[in-house]
Amino acid sequence: MAAPSHPQPGSVRTASGREVRLAVNGRDHVLRLDGSERLSAVLRRELRLTGVKEGCLEGECGACTVLIDDLPVNACLMLAFQAEGRRITTVEGLAGPGGALSSLQQAFVDNGAVQCGYCTPGMVMAAQGLLLRNPAPDEAEIRDALAGNLCRCTGFQGIVAAVKAEAAS
Fold first, then answer.
1. Are the C-beta atoms of 9 and 27 separated by less than 8 Å?
2. Domains in the chain, start-ordered, CATH in brackets?
3. Strand bridging mode 18-24 / 87-89
4. Which of 4, 62, 84, 154 is least surrounded, with the fewest CB atoms within 10 Å of its CB?
5. For 102, which DSSP code?
6. Residue 87, beta-bridge partner list
């Protein structure tokens, strides 16, 4: 069986369904999708943005958090066509030239906020959304912004410290 083809930016996936235009990480993509495809699945499968994790598929864990027009959204709860005409940012979109970590991503590393790593992309995106809205949050605001993201490894202390460090920089 042949491996599935994956589109390059600006390409069209050939399949039956609706044509959907997605602006992801500053690049435009045109895909032909079934109307019931979750945004999280399309980002992972079609665009190979595997930083978007699919954990619970019920909006409870936050592993699939992306920014839609700079606001954190659970991509597992959004159908791909609902994101048409909106600006989508995944954790891959935060990286600098050559894949250099963003200052927030580096703060996660520096503050021990990464252990198994499964929740990390969603946590980073929730934190990024907070910092875009409020560049100087206090600890209660940080914890509130991260409340929809679960982590079983870190105990959240390093994650909160990372967001505080980024806010202070």
1. yes
2. 18-52+75-88 (3.10.20.30), 100-168 (1.10.150.120)
3. parallel
4. 4
5. P
6. 23
Task: Give 107-113 contacts, CB < 8 A, sequence gap 24+.
Answer: 107/162, 107/163, 107/165, 107/166, 107/169, 108/158, 108/159, 108/162, 110/162, 110/165, 111/158, 111/159, 111/161, 111/162, 111/165, 112/154, 112/158, 112/161, 113/154, 113/158, 113/159, 113/161, 113/162
Tokens of 27: 């690049």
* Residue ranges in 29-101 assigned as alpha helix (H): 39-41
Measure the CA angle with vertex 67, ends 64 and 69; round to 5°: 150
pTM of the complete model:
0.87
C-alpha count within 13 angstroms, C-beta hemisphere, residue 159? 28
Residues ≥6 apart with Cβ < 8 Å to 52: 40, 43, 44, 64, 66, 75, 90, 91, 121
> pLDDT tens, 86-128?
999 999 999 998 999 999 999 999 999 998 888 999 999 999 9
